[in-house]
């Protein structure tokens, strides 16, 4: 999905009808009665060759209190803040109302890109309303009929250049992950660590449960109160990106909304917020999982850490609010024991105690992030890997299903960020997970790769070793070349 489009406007102007047309299904309720849509609904939209996320919002009401209409308005305003593009829809047959003018003013201030659409514009009865729409100061209105599918081509023409702009931005900010190594790089283990620069900073996502202190931690790094904080859980609603020089390390740091158990996520804004936090993890290189020292390693903490590992990101675990902890030594021992037991897939990942409020431990956190990033970029020479593999097989041979022993013939590193290895095997489909884990744990210990996700793939290649005889072949080709040159 290249960008997010929020459809906003007064009740009953046809937002849900357009939403259903874009997603190709009747996902949203449609009725002549205004105010049918109360929640935000998100869907995968398709328009021509474009693929994007579309959000159907509740009708914007002129209400600012805690009534249902007031809450619906706040929900819609949050969708406007989170969306890349807003499609402001008016009813061309009704014309411009005072409410339309109020919300056009809001969109001019809050929205990044606004497209004005005059819906129900089929026939001459809508001409006056379309002309009147120019008075909103949001550019030329698109004439459309969401019900009959008219004006979709004009909407596509408006969205195409914006989609290209967002695609370029995504390419610039997206981290290089699963980087494929050439045969020469794999054989020699060439170190090519791309250290962060101000133009291409290290991307860090700070994730955790609500009220763990994520925004407070980032404010302390910035040296100013840029993010809203407070004792209430769930103040941060969407993922916010800020660039900072962290003691000489250029980073772009993402503050994300707190992630809670799915059953507890009743607030519709929070549902969008959690999705935003998950996207931040995917766009990060290093993920800091922030725990609360008072209640560490709850189920949701484990899920967040596991998500980061499955996405192949370098992980650092930080335990916050350490300044109010009394039995520090005993607590630290308990934390390390629980970490090793509950997150074996992140064995050896850094665990750092910090206080976001006082700033204690932030220097250790920076060192841990730098170390995790370096390990995430690890490259091991092929010759070293195969000597290691021989030793591991001799110490603990693979199983022999149905009396036929599995032979591990050859190993190489195929990728980095995170490290990915390929083992050529006689029966890859019969290799048990327990033996794969044995090899992964051995890689961690032997090549000093604590905590980083490691990918190990078994492939069948019979008796052929792609590197067998390569040096002899190269030497023969060189001799032949020299003889020909001499002759």
From TrEMBL:
<dbReference type="InterPro" id="IPR032859">
    <property type="entry name" value="KH_dom-like"/>
</dbReference>
<keyword id="KW-0690">Ribosome biogenesis</keyword>
<feature type="binding site">
    <location>
        <begin position="119"/>
        <end position="122"/>
    </location>
    <ligand>
        <name>GTP 1</name>
    </ligand>
</feature>
<dbReference type="Pfam" id="PF14714">
    <property type="entry name" value="KH_dom-like"/>
</dbReference>
<feature type="region of interest" description="Disordered">
    <location>
        <begin position="459"/>
        <end position="487"/>
    </location>
</feature>
<dbReference type="InterPro" id="IPR031166">
    <property type="entry name" value="G_ENGA"/>
</dbReference>
<feature type="domain" description="EngA-type G">
    <location>
        <begin position="3"/>
        <end position="167"/>
    </location>
</feature>
<feature type="domain" description="EngA-type G">
    <location>
        <begin position="202"/>
        <end position="377"/>
    </location>
</feature>
<keyword id="KW-0547">Nucleotide-binding</keyword>
<feature type="binding site">
    <location>
        <begin position="208"/>
        <end position="215"/>
    </location>
    <ligand>
        <name>GTP 2</name>
    </ligand>
</feature>
<dbReference type="GO" id="GO:0042254">
    <property type="term" value="P:ribosome biogenesis"/>
</dbReference>
<dbReference type="GO" id="GO:0005525">
    <property type="term" value="F:GTP binding"/>
</dbReference>
<dbReference type="InterPro" id="IPR027417">
    <property type="entry name" value="P-loop_NTPase"/>
</dbReference>
<dbReference type="Pfam" id="PF01926">
    <property type="entry name" value="MMR_HSR1"/>
</dbReference>
<dbReference type="InterPro" id="IPR006073">
    <property type="entry name" value="GTP-bd"/>
</dbReference>
<keyword id="KW-0342">GTP-binding</keyword>
<feature type="binding site">
    <location>
        <begin position="56"/>
        <end position="60"/>
    </location>
    <ligand>
        <name>GTP 1</name>
    </ligand>
</feature>
<feature type="binding site">
    <location>
        <begin position="320"/>
        <end position="323"/>
    </location>
    <ligand>
        <name>GTP 2</name>
    </ligand>
</feature>
<dbReference type="InterPro" id="IPR005225">
    <property type="entry name" value="Small_GTP-bd"/>
</dbReference>
<dbReference type="InterPro" id="IPR016484">
    <property type="entry name" value="GTPase_Der"/>
</dbReference>
<protein>
    <recommendedName>
        <fullName>GTPase Der</fullName>
    </recommendedName>
</protein>
<feature type="binding site">
    <location>
        <begin position="255"/>
        <end position="259"/>
    </location>
    <ligand>
        <name>GTP 2</name>
    </ligand>
</feature>
<dbReference type="InterPro" id="IPR015946">
    <property type="entry name" value="KH_dom-like_a/b"/>
</dbReference>
<feature type="binding site">
    <location>
        <begin position="9"/>
        <end position="16"/>
    </location>
    <ligand>
        <name>GTP 1</name>
    </ligand>
</feature>
<comment type="similarity">
    <text>Belongs to the TRAFAC class TrmE-Era-EngA-EngB-Septin-like GTPase superfamily. EngA (Der) GTPase family.</text>
</comment>
<comment type="subunit">
    <text>Associates with the 50S ribosomal subunit.</text>
</comment>
<comment type="function">
    <text>GTPase that plays an essential role in the late steps of ribosome biogenesis.</text>
</comment>
<keyword id="KW-0677">Repeat</keyword>
């Amino acid at each position: 999905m290249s960008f997010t489009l929020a459809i906003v406007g007064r009740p009953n102007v046809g937002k849900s009808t357009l939403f259903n047309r874009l997603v190709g299904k009747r996902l949203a309720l449609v009725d002549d009665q205004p105010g049918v849509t109360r929640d935000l609904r998100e869907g995968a939209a398709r328009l021509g060759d474009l693929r994007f996320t579309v959000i159907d919002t509740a009708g914007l009401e002129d209400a600012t209190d805690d009534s249902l209409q007031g809450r619906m308005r706040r929900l819609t305003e949050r969708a406007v803040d989170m969306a890349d593009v807003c499609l402001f829809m008016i009813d061309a047959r009704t014309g411009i109302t005072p409410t339309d003018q109020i919300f056009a003013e809001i969109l001019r201030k809050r929205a990044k890109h606004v497209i004005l659409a005059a819906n129900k514009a089929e026939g001459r009865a809508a001409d006056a309303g379309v002309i009147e729409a120019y008075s909103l100061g949001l550019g030329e209105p698109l004439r459309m009929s969401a019900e009959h599918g008219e004006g979709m081509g004009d909407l596509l023409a408006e969205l195409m250049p914006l989609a290209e702009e967002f695609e370029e931005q995504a390419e610039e900010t997206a981290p290089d992950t699963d980087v494929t190594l050439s045969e020469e790089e794999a054989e020699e283990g060439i170190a090519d660590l791309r250290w962060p620069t101000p133009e291409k900073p290290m991307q860090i996502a700070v994730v955790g449960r609500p009220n763990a202190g994520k925004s407070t931690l980032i404010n302390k790094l910035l040296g100013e109160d840029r993010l809203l904080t407070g004792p209430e859980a769930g103040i941060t609603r969407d993922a916010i990106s800020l660039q900072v020089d962290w003691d000489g390390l250029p980073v772009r740091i993402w503050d994300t909304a707190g992630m809670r158990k799915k059953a507890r996520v009743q607030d519709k804004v929070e549902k969008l917020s959690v999705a935003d936090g998950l996207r931040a993890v995917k766009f990060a290189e290093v993920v800091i999982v922030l725990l609360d020292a008072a209640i560490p390693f709850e189920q949701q903490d484990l899920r967040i850490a596991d998500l980061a590992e499955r996405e192949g990101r370098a992980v650092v675990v930080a335990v916050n609010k350490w300044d109010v902890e009394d039995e520090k030594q005993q607590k630290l021992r308990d934390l390390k024991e629980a970490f090793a037991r509950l997150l074996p897939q992140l064995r050896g990942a850094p665990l750092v105690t910090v206080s976001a409020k006082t700033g204690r431990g932030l220097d250790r956190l920076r060192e841990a992030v730098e170390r995790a990033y370096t390990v995430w970029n690890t490259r091991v020479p092929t010759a070293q890997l195969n000597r290691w593999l021989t030793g591991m097989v001799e110490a603990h041979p693979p199983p022999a299903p149905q009396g036929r022993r599995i032979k591990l013939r050859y190993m190489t590193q195929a990728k980095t960020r995170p490290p990915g290895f390929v083992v050529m095997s006689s029966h890859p489909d019969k290799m048990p997970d327990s033996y794969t884990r044995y090899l992964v744990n051995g890689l961690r210990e032997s090549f000093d790769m604590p905590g980083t996700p490691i990918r190990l793939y078994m492939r069948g290649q019979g008796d052929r070793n792609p590197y067998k005889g390569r040096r002899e072949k190269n030497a023969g080709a060189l001799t032949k070349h020299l003889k020909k040159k001499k002759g």
